[in-house]
Every structure is written in C-alpha cells, then in structure tokens.
Amino acid sequence: MPAAPEMRFRIASRAELEFGNRVAQWVSDHIGGNALATRLARDEIDGALLSALMPPPPFDLGNGQSLTFTYCSDPPEIIEGSFGALPFAVELGRLAGDPSVLPPKRGKAPHLAIGKDAQLAIDLDVDALNAVLFELWRGGFLDKQLAAAALDAKFNADPIVQELLSLRISPVRLALPPVIAPAGDHLRMSADARVTIVDGPSTTVGRVWGGLDFTLGADAAHGDARDTKGGSATRAGSGSDGMPDAIGAIEVDLGALELSCERTVTKLAPCYSDLVAAIRGRGSEFHGALSTAFAAILTDIFVERRLGASGLPADLVIERAVPRVTASGGNGSLHLDLAASLVPTLH
Length: 347
Prior knowledge:
The protein is α+β, with helices and mostly antiparallel strands and 347 residues long. The chain folds into 2 domains: 1-52, no CATH class; 57-344, Bactericidal permeability-increasing protein, domain 2. It is 27% helix and 37% strand. The chain contains 8 helices and 19 strands. The strands form 4 sheets. Strands 3, 4, 5, 7, 14, 17, 18 and 19 form an 8-stranded antiparallel beta sheet that branches. A hairpin with a 2-residue loop joins strand 18 and strand 19. The longest helix is centred in the first third of the chain and has 20 residues, at 33-52. The protein is elongated. The two termini are 37 Å apart.
C-alpha cells in the first residue's frame, strides 16, 4: 500500500459560557467570553484528536531496529457519535540478499467494530500481520525471542529425553518469515525453521514445519463485523472501564508439526517420526505456556504506552489490550480493543 507521510484534518468546534449571575454573563458577553472559551477548547480538542488519530508509536526492537507505522493513502472514516477510523500501513524494509522478497498480500479483510468498553482500537488484517512478522524476522527479532525461549535447552533437559534418547538439538532459527492465514474461525501462523540434530556421532540439519492456532476473544462472531479499506486502522471511540484481562482472552495451540532431515542439500526425508508424534500428542501441555507467552508480547507492546503531542497537558495511556479475531472468506484480521485514560503529561 503506498504510504502517505502526512495526513491533514480540519476540526471545527465551538464553546459557550453561561453564568447564573446576570452581571457575570453581561461581562462575558462584552469581553468575548465565548470566543475565548472556543479558542481554548479548540486547542485542547485538536491536540487530543490528532494524538488519537495517529498511527501507533514505533516499537523499539533493540539493536537500532524499530517497527514503524505510517499513514496510508486510504481516506479516514468518521462515524458521527461513534468512532473515527484512520487507515495506516507498516513500513517495510528490504532483505539485503534479495530485495524482491516481500510478505504475501490477500487484500481487503473484515474488521470488527470498536468494543463498547474501549477508548481506542487497532485492527491488523492478515496483510498487516504478515508485514509485521516479516519485519520482526528480517531484523532477527523473532530468532532472538526463540533463543530466549530456550526450547532446545528445555527439550535436552527433559527427563524422558535424558533417559531414553541419545539425540540433542540446537537452538531453533527461522529460515523464512512466519505467515498468518485464516483457518476456519481462527488464525494460523505457519513457520519454516531449521534445527541441528546431534544423535551420537551423526549431525543432521532438521527442517521443522510448524503451525500455531490463535483463538482470541470469547467469540469473534458476536462482534459487529464490517469491511473497511486498507491494511489496518486505528479507531477512537467513547467507552468506560471494565474490559476483561488480556491474558484470559488469548488461546494459542500447537496446530501442526512436521520434521524432515537433510540427507543432502537437495534431498529431504521424514525423520524421527515417533518423536514428532509424541510431541504432537503432548500439544495440550503447550497450550498454557504458548497462551501466556503471546499475551505477554501484547502487553509489552501496548500496555503503559503513552500517546500524546507536544504542548498538551495530558497523555492518553493504554491500560489494557484485549484481542479478538475475525475470519471470513479466506481473509481475517486481529482486533485489539484498548482501554485507556488521560493522565498528566510527564515533564
């Protein structure tokens, strides 16, 4: 989607002063109290709305890399008395070795309406999610997260592995960026990874194909689904507190797992099928750990983020992020309802 570095808005507002005292009202009318109140209100409203209708702030990935969002060319959508939606896009870098490699595109996706208890919402359709994953993979962020998860150390230290198996594995790394696609009423993230398998004197490169199934929110079908243009959108609306905890809204399960070994550079063969079947059979054991891990990622990205602009007395601080998923017609999107409140600006 072509990027538009600047978006212009015109916001009209008017304020009136009314006093219960006739003398005070007469003084206000003669010194232009309404005009003064309008000017003060307009400055505050303009700044607050423009801060709310901005793309999410850059997410610092470390080592000089950040995930950056920008405006896209689609027009904003304003539903009077309800919400405003602003389409935005993910800024993509290029692979140094092959600049032609880019994430897949599916096009227009269904979006959910902002939750009644949310002040802000973000919709990331499948194209936007794949763009985000591409950037996280391109800069090595995902491989660092895999290394931090220490899957190899947990496998190698498992008592059953220690007692019954001679093989050990290296840290897992991603050969290609993960890709998200709809799978029925949920989303599936598929990945192609590499792992070194040491079994006694032999060493083999294993190719791991895996899939994680994401079910978010109680029931996406209960939301008010609608189509909007663009890769994603931020929404600002009115609401109150009382949103559910983000961790309780996420369910992540192991949806697929296959392993092949490289007999030669160009020849693959299934291997360790009994081991792979045993890991698949223990998929329910991964449910809690995977769900908690991805809830923590969402919390790290969004919760306690401050949205504001220079000169404003208050910032909008995100307190909770509650995800929902909608999928329809071979496409889908991740919807995040954000509970937020105004707090004084830090100086």
